[in-house]
Each structure stands twice: as structure tokens, then as C-alpha cells.
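pasting for the record
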Amino acid sequence: MKILNLYAGIGGNRKLWGDEHEVTAVENNKEIGVVYKKFFPNDKVIVADAHQYLLEHYQEFDFIWSSPPCPSHSMLCFCQKRKKFPDMKLYEEIIFLKTWFKGKWVVENVKPYYEPLVKPQIIGRHAIWSNFKISQIKVDYQIGTMNYKASKQAIEKARIRRAQIPDLIDFHGLQNFKLKNKRQVLRNCVYPKVGLHIFEAAFKDLKEEQKSLS
């Protein structure tokens, strides 16, 4: 299966997908792209505008994951009274994929502070738009579920939403990397367990479609 991973960051969503598929990751920050490539050396990493890349290359893939920038949609933006226009690239991609893409797709973002223009599925703290069904999953965000070696007390306190940056650095393996915006990069990461759950739902749906056609 050929996979397109847009706005890839350091690959939190992709962490548990394995290496049996052909993955192309698009990230506009070269520094972050270097980190992604270290984590996933078998993936093709392209430093480019993910929004434009989607438009030009969507037909080349079987599964597309997109995680457009979320700050302008977030409840934090509203609570801090950051008066800015919501970035409509989010809905441009949802509508585009829904209309033109024949494979499986998912657009991931935060739960918005406003009534969504297109109704999403809510998985944990994520708003998910897709053309396949995704079952609910209990998301505890415990670092311990990722085989992170820590004391029981540390695991109990280190939940992703409330985690301090040092916890997240250890969790995502960024100890040896220097990133100018490391805090934002870490906060943007999709929890790997959620990324795997959504990926498996897409793959299952795709196999069932292929079976029905055979």
C-alpha cells in the first residue's frame, strides 16, 4: 500500500505503522524532516508545502493521512482570545479528498472551539474526518503503554495532555535532537496508539472492499 503522510512532523501518528508499506512523508520544515528521517529511514521524506503536494500528487496513493496546522482551530486559541481567522486549508482538504480521492483518507485535527463546518468523528482529543468508520478507543495517554521505562509513579503522572516537555522528549525519543520549536513539535504529535488504531481501521476497510470486488 502506498501511503501519503502530510504535515508529518516527527511522525507520532506513523510510529506504530511498521515498514511493510511504502510511505511518503511531507513536512515543510527541513529541520523536522531530518528528525523524521532518522526515526523512519525507509520512508521517502519530502520537504515541501503539504497542502500543494496533496493537490498535485493525491492520485499516486492508496491511503492519505493529513494533519493540517491546528492552532487557529483550538480551544486554547479561543480561551486566550487570539482573534485570528481559522485556517480554512483544513476544510479545503476535507472537501477535496471527499470529492476526488478514491482511496482511504483521514484528516486529523483538534476538537475545534466552534461548531465544525463538516461534522467529524471524535477520537480521544482528536477531531477526525475520514471516508471509513473508526471505532472508539479508550485513550489513557499513559507513557507506560509505549514501553517507556519509568517508575510506576512516573507513568501514572505522565499523561500526554498534561505531560511536561521533558516527559514528552523522552516519550518521543528527542533527547539527542535540537529543534528550535521543540515544544510545539511535541504538542502537535498524534499519540501513536491513536495513529495505529486509525491506520488499522483504514487498512481493514480497504481489504474488505477488495474482497467484495474479487
